[in-house]
Write a structure and sequence with these properties.
Rossmann fold, 13 strands, 3 domains, globular, pyridoxal phosphate, alpha/beta, 35% helix, binds pyridoxal-5'-phosphate, lyase, Threonine synthase, six-stranded mixed beta sheet
Amino acid sequence: MTDNLSANRANFVTHLECAMTGERYEAGRLHGLSRVGRPLLVRYDLAALGASIDRDAIAARAPDLWRWRELLPVVNTANIVSLGEIETPLIAIPRSGGKGVLVKDEGRLPTGSFKARGLVMAVSMAKELGVTRIAMPTNGNAGAALAAYASRCGIETIVLCPEETPEINVREIAAQGARVWRVNGQIDECGAIVGKGAAEGRWFDFSTLKEPYRIEGKKTMGLELALQFGWDLPDAIFYPTGGGTGLIGMWKAFDELEKLGWIGSKRPRMYAVQAEGCAPMVRAFEQGLEHAERWENAATVAAGIRVPKAVGDFLILRAVRQSGGRALAVSDAEILRAVDDTARQDGLLMCPEGGATLAALRKARAEGLVAEGERVVLFNCATGLKYPMPMAGEPLDRTKEIDLSRL
Ligand SMILES: *Cc1c(COP(=O)(O)O)cnc(C)c1O
């Protein structure tokens, strides 16, 4: 870690560009959405990058997120606000998932979720660009990661959660120094309040994809997979999709790796997984649309994917279609069964969103979309310990005679 953080390096960012129109924006300045209200993507001088380092040199570095620093936007490494972003392991779940299925266990990252990848990058860039106050709408984990990294470098944070956000998330956000509010609405309605304050100049808007650097942090999931699979990507990736940052980021990573010549043109089929109670991407995918309409009355146990409207909808749908994958919806009952199976049979406690990916894999197998023996990656995005578990543990009175055969 320290090695990767302290090493001097050149920065290869050339500019940013609107994901919709391709319009160019200058690097080294604060940006939100593009002029047409769409996400900005960071572009690199990949030819120069490839001439300065090769994939074996990166593979030889300490295994953390910062080993990819040439492919990341932070200019001055002193601005990196790290809490120890390890490379997450791939865990086999042979009994609940079957042969060839690996779970990328993101619950081991700082703040217990993969939101740490996006927020360590976005906050480091905010620090680099002189931001002092940030506001964000969140279903929980993004707010927790924002609070942690921003507090660490003295940036003030205001976090707005839908009132049905898991209790532990609301409290961990407050515990890590943010001012947190429970709003009687969905995440996009919280986002409208954040947007209003940003327009008045009260704070910088950190909504999903409304600043350009979370994608760069989330992209490291794709970079890590390439390295972990020996530069030969898996056959299928199941990703629980809310705002879609990770799916968009991985797709961008694969493109950059191919341009560098570090991987070939073969891509995993990308499966965007949503809950039946909030499936705007699935509906748009099935209707052949480029953009997804807002999903009304969104409801699911998987709070992280309860996102009725995503500003990067067209990027999610594009990646899924280009990859030959699909958007799949699963029920809350299927999600909870998958979480239970993996915990009891393979000893891995996943979050509900992680459970959704196993439920979707089961559905995909039943529909013949995934063949036996294919190399499949499921994303467990947060530690299962953050989520409510059923009551357990009957009292045992040690002062009375205990029938040990009953235990
Ligand atoms: C945020 C989140 C997701 C969705 O991630 P996106 O990249 O925003 O689509 C899934 N699961 C959990 C646990 C999350 O916190």
